[in-house]
Amino acid sequence: MPICIECRHPVKTLWTQYSGAGDKASGHNIRLTVCRKCGRFCDKYVEHDFVVLFIDLVLIKPQPSIVRLGILLLLFDVYLTWARIENQGLPGETPGERNESSLGQLAQQPIVIQYFFFLMLCTLSTLAFHAVIRFLVASSLSPLVALGVLPRYRRPNSVSTALLVSSSTKLFPILLVIWDYDVPAAATSLGWAVVANNVEALRILLDCRYYVACLLALIGAATRWSVARLVLVAVGLNGTDSMSVDASMATDAKALWGAVTLHQAKSRSTMAPTLLWIGLGNMGRAMCKNIVDKGNLDAPLLIYNRSKQRAVDLSQKLPGGKTEVVESLVDAVAKVDIIFTCVANDEAVSEVIAAALQADIKGKLFIECSTIHPDATQATADKLLAQGAEFVAAPVFGAPAAAEAGQLIAVLAGPSASVDRARPWFKGVTARAEIDLTGAPYGKATTLKVIGNTFVLNMVEQLAEAHVLAETSGLGTQPIHALVEALFPGPYAAYSTRMLSGDYHTRAEPLWAVDLARKDARHAKALAAAAGTRVQNVETADAHLASLREHAGPSGDIAAIYGVVRKKAGLNFKNDV
Question: What SUPFAM superfamilies does the annotation carry (predicted)?
């Protein structure tokens, strides 16, 4: 609903069209609404109706679309191009001598013919601008794709959308109908802004280097200018240009060069930090993928895993040039600004930190995502802080599928400045939400993680017992599963499905391996003992996990607690599926 711009009171409409709208002698074709609350016009600028109402008609009405934006930009280009050529004059004319002669024979044609000529001119040049850039980024025949300058982009329509949206800055001169400007450079700076926006849009969309985005924009601008020149020459306007001096190819080139040099001058201070990821289990691989896809990295993500082949396999699955497999942990730490660790247990964390301490780590940020005992978290932090590094405890909640989708929940603990450095890699990249423990002791984050993981242990234990009871009592497992889906959708239903489908004994690689689950159970029992209490459900689950370890070895999955409970009830470990 519109509002009064003076007092912000809601109103039904900003103007009313009255019966004399088509009669020029009757004056204005709209009547401004007076606010009942403050007694002033709700929006006095609506009297600039030819501008405001046109935008309202094309763009702001219900169901706006990119097509409408494209139409608006095209029609505005027609106005600008027409005005430029009319005011350009013939070579050698002074400004005071300029007249319609700059349009040649076209000036003798009816105004409608002139309008359709400029509409055709702008349509062809705009299509050429989009077509050449789409060809260069999306065609298998593109020389840039063939030379490996950038990977083939398979959504060319998104390229046009990005160019249209980033060109909307050219609509700003509409404001000059209302506010005059007295700085001639304003028009030039507006042209620069459009070019810079095109470059930035291409860089973000294609995830390419600045020089590649600048090259694409320059080629597009050159093609647009060439097509416009051909059309003008074809109708005999050899001495005119579709662009004024302020909007010429030279200005476009200067704008592109300015964007490049500005980026180079600021690159050291604005470049994204370099990253190293250590540990490529189920969670680590998925989080790496999201950092590569969404992290807007300026340099390849370095990846390290104790077994190198796993790092090589991941690198081959991700886009080329986005990752680099490293063999020396010490050398890798020395190269980067931020180090992520996501490894199996406390001992693995200690080994990684011992290697990292062999490098100069002053000023580097270590982000610890592993599930370890809170005391181990604090001990790790103490070692790193003593050498001048920063540390953030950042364990995450979520199954591997959630990690793959970037839907984890991150728990961040540490000094405010360090957490702020870590935050860009979580919400919106690897996580959907954060639990903020900024300023809290590091161990608080992993205490929450250990206790949180007991929810999963308890859930799996309860589901296993319920399904076995339902089967042995004659009820059957399907009614229990239906109840779980209706009452506890989400993780409960997912684990129930894994049990009943046989996934717990057919999966090649466990989602949550038995040894990792037992490690978390030990940490929970240790926390409870230190606090003078017990976690009896966890104790029961851990006993079943011990039996699972004997039955299936280290490849056993936590969901296979179901098989252990089945055996204790006289059923087969594997269900019939």
Answer: 6-phosphogluconate dehydrogenase C-terminal domain-like, NAD(P)-binding Rossmann-fold domains
Helix/strand/coil (H/E/C) assignment for every residue in 298-343: CCCEEEECCCHHHHHHHHHHCCCCCEEECCCHHHHHHHCCEEEECC
DSSP one-letter code for 473: T
What three-state secondary structure class fits 31? Answer: strand
> Which of 339, 338, 381, 389 lies closest to 362 in space, CA to CA?
389
Distances (CA, A) of 256 to 19, 61, 218, 223: 51, 35, 7, 15
| 157 within some domain | yes
Can you read off the two tokens belonging to residue 67? 């097509």
Give dist(CA 457, CA 7) in Å, integer. 58
Integer CA distances (angstroms), 261 to 140, 187, 214, 254, in order: 31, 21, 11, 10
Phi and psi of 513, rounded to 5°? -65, 150
- 280-292 pLDDT per residue, tens: 999 999 999 999 9
Whether 409 and 403 have beta carbons less than 8 Å apart is answered as: no
The helix (run of H) or strand (run of E) holding residue 216 is helix 210-234
Out of 192-201, 405-414, 434-443, which region has the weakest mean confidence (pLDDT)? 192-201
Cα–Cα distance between 145 and 59 in angstroms, integer?
Answer: 35
When the pLDDT of each residue in the chain is averaged and rounded to a whole number, the result is: 84
Report residue 78 as tokens: 């027609």
Instruction: Give the lowest-confidence range in 33-42, 406-415, 505-514, 560-569.
Output: 33-42
For Cα atoms 561, 279, 506, give the angle at the middle one, nearest 5 degrees: 30
Residue 59 lies in a domain: no
At residue 497, the 3 state secondary structure works out as helix
147-156, 189-198, 313-322 — which one is most confidently predicted on average?
A: 313-322
Domain count within the chain: 4
Q: In degrees to the nearest 10, what's the CA dihedral of 472, 474, 478, 482?
A: -100
Gap between the Cα atoms of 347 and 329, Å rounded: 16
Per-residue pLDDT tens for 176-233? 544 444 444 455 566 677 888 888 888 888 888 888 889 998 998 889 888 888 888 8
For the annotated catalytic residues, the residue numbers are: 449
Residue 179 and residue 242 share a domain: yes
Residue that is last in its domain, among 383, 413, 440: 440
Strand partners, 557: 513
Residue 375 has pLDDT above 70, yes or no: yes
